[in-house]
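Subgroup meeting minutes
Present: P.N., E.W., G.H.
Scribe: E.W.

1. P.N. recapped why we're keeping a running log of single-chain structure predictions: easier to compare across weeks, and new members can see raw inputs and outputs side by side.
2. G.H. added today's entry (199 aa).
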Amino acid sequence: MILYNSQVSGNCYKVRLVLARLGASYERRELSVSDRTDRAEVLGGLNPALRVPTLVLDDGRALGESGAITWFLAEGTDLVPSDPFSRAQVLQWLFFEQYDHEPAIAAVRFWVAYSGRPEAFTHLLEERRAAGHRALAAMETHLTGRQYLVGETLTLADVALYAYTHVAPEGGFDLAAYPSIGAWLDRVAGDPHHVPMDA
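Output recorded in log:
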C-alpha cells in the first residue's frame, strides 16, 4: 500500500494510527499541507479532491477521505463494533469530527501554526475558536464518566477525534478546561498500538 501523507495533518494521522494498530506495512509519500502546486500531477488520477490522505491499495485502487479510508481499514476489527447501534454511534462521532470539530480546531491550528501567514486569518479566529470550544465542550460532556466515546473499548471514533484534539493547543485551545478530555487523551495515547504523530 501507498499512503500519500502530510506529517502534520491530523486526517493523515488517523490513517497512520489505524495502520499501526493493524501492523500493516505501507510506503509513505509526503506532500506539503501548504504548497499544493503539485497536487494535480501527483494525485490527479487517484483522488478527484486532490487531498491527503489518499491510500493506494496493492491492487491499484485508490481511496480518499480519512473517514472512508479508516473505515475501510478498520472494518472487521475491534475498532468497528459488530452491534449495529454501536456502529452507528461510531459513525455519529466520525461525522461530528468532520462537521463540527475539524473545521474549527484543525483550521485554527493550521492558520496559527502552519500557514506561514497567521495574520491573514485574524478576522476568522474568534468565530472558529468559539466553534472549537463548542465541539470540545460537547466531547467533555459526553466523556464525563466514560472511558471512551462509544462502549467500553477504543473504537474508530476515538482514533478520529484524538488526531486533532491532542494538538489543539497548537491553535491556542487550552485543554486544561476539559479534564475528561485530558484523561481520555491519556487513555488513547496509552493504547499499546499507539504511535505519536511525529513517528
